[in-house]
Each structure stands twice: as structure tokens, then as C-alpha cells.
Amino acid sequence: MSVLPEIAQLEFETQDLPNELEPMGKSFLFDFTKGEFVLRNGKMVEVEGLDALKVWIEKCMRTERYRFRVYEGVEYGVTLEDLIGSNLPRAFVEAEIKREVTESLIQHPYIDDIQDWRFERDGKWMRVQFRVITPDGAFEQEVGYGA
Hints:
InterPro entries: Sheath_initiator. This is DUF2634 domain-containing protein. The chain is of the alpha+beta class. The chain has a single domain, classed as Roll (Nuclear Transport Factor 2, Chain: A). It contains two helices and nine strands. The protein has a three-stranded antiparallel beta sheet, covered by helices on one side. Strands 1-6 form a two-stranded antiparallel sheet. The longest helix has 16 residues, at 90-105. It is globular and about 50 Å long. The termini are far apart.
């Protein structure tokens, strides 16, 4: 006779959790410098996978949150306009950009983390670079702001 309970007879509630993420879907390649979709033979160029994710990231980082009615009620975009080119201390600006961008981007189901931040600043111009960590690996992303 054992003094330990028979664990094999205990019942536990289990919950089925998805093992895989849904397919990322397609997007269209956008030239953010020119401000227009990339056309090939008169048609917009479709991208998928990591290329679609890169387009989503840059679009999110260039969309000022709360400015456009199409995004009302949705937490999409960033609030960086008052930071870029401001006279606030550089350490504060960079910390706020890290916080704001990370909070916005990790909402995407394919983004696990944002790391390895780098900043270049010249007056009202700034380049923000970072590493995006996904379930499938990592890649570098860069976005420039200002004149």
C-alpha cells in the first residue's frame, strides 16, 4: 500500500493550442521613397512571407497613430512625430522610439521581438535600424524619418 495518490487517475482539463501560425498572406510592394506602389508591366507587384511582413512594418512605422480615420478603433501605427527632430534629450527620444515601435510591431502575430537598435540622427532627420525576431528567424529593418 502506497501513501502517495494515484496520479494516473487524476483528470486535467486540456486546451488545444494552435502549433502553427496562420499563413501570413500577400501584400503589395510599396516604394516608400516615391510614395507609390511598385508596378511591373502595369500591375502592382505582389509580395508574401517575409517581404510582406517588411512592407507591413515600414507602413506601420510611417503611419502616425490616431491621425487617419480608417484606423479609428484600431491600435495601428506609431506616435513618433513629436519625437523626431525634437530638442528633447537624445537618450529620451531613442528610449521612447524603442518603446513605441516595439509596442506597435509585436502586435503582429509573426513578430516575437525587436532587438539590436541603432539610431543615426542629424538635425530633423533620423534613421532607425533594428532586428526583427520572428518564429522563422530574424532580419534587419530600417526606416528613415525627416527631410
